[in-house]
Amino acid sequence: MFSYSSRRNTPLTQNRISLFLASVAAAALGALAVSPVANAASTACPATTTSTPFAAWGDTSSYWLVPDGDFESQPSGWTLAGGASRVAGSDPFAITGTLGSSALGLPAGSSAESPSLCVEATERSYRFMGHSEDGEATVRPELVYEGWFGRVAIPGKAVALKSAWEPSPILHTGAMLVSAISGGSVHLELRFTTLTGKAVIDDVFVDPRMRR
Q1: Cα–Cα distance between 43 and 179 in angstroms, integer?
Q2: Cα–Cα distance list, 94 to 6, 65, 173, 201, 203 (Å)
Q3: Where would you tag: which of 123, 125, 193, 211 has the fewest CB atoms within 10 A of its CB?
Q4: Average per-residue pLDDT for the chain
């Protein structure tokens, strides 16, 4: 906790405060910078196949499906913890173009982290389908970046899931800011943690804005 003196700030004190605030800002930006090795190898992301999966809900943006993001096969590229597992049942709207039979079950306290995703500054948002098996569930999405300091998880606003399947709100990757800092494309993982209830998610998509 910071404490503040009631004495009037002198120019020297104000300069020290300014330097302190500048160092805090630099540290915050450094916490998002990707490692030089990773950045050197990823100046551009591979091409992706897109569709408009959320058009029925008024979102006509193009999206690409995260690897194994439909959970129709065992999600080998995903890291599951705390009881997260593939379960029977799927998004009934078939937004991938095919009606599936599986989804990802996330009981309270469990989490699922996607494979590493290459994103560029234009890929600013993502969405998924979800519902709750017990009235209402709360899922916290996070962005996981890697840099010289290790892995940093940036939590997003919790998403409330109802009993009926529906799309999540439009969530943000932060790719524009991180790409600007790193000078190129970046790699991140999407992590979903259930805070309350029994959540089920399916069909995780990323929006490549301005590339459609």
Answers
A1: 10
A2: 63, 13, 24, 13, 9
A3: 211
A4: 79
Burial of 102 (C-beta count, 10 Å sphere; 0-12/13-18/19+):
middle
Q: Based on the number of CB atoms within 10 Å of its own CB, is 90 exposed (0-12), middle (13-18) or buried (19 or more)?
A: buried
- Interatomic CA distance for residues 150 and 145, integer angstroms: 8
Give the pair of three-digit tokens for residue 90. 């799927």
Instruction: Please compute, for residue 124, the number of CA atoms within 13 A of its CA located in the half-sphere on the CB side.
Output: 9
Structural domains of the chain, ranges and CATH numbers in brackets: 11-207 (2.60.120.260)
Q: The pTM is what?
A: 0.76
In angstroms, the CA 147 to CA 36 distance is 8
Q: Look up tokens 């995903």; give the residue.
A: 78
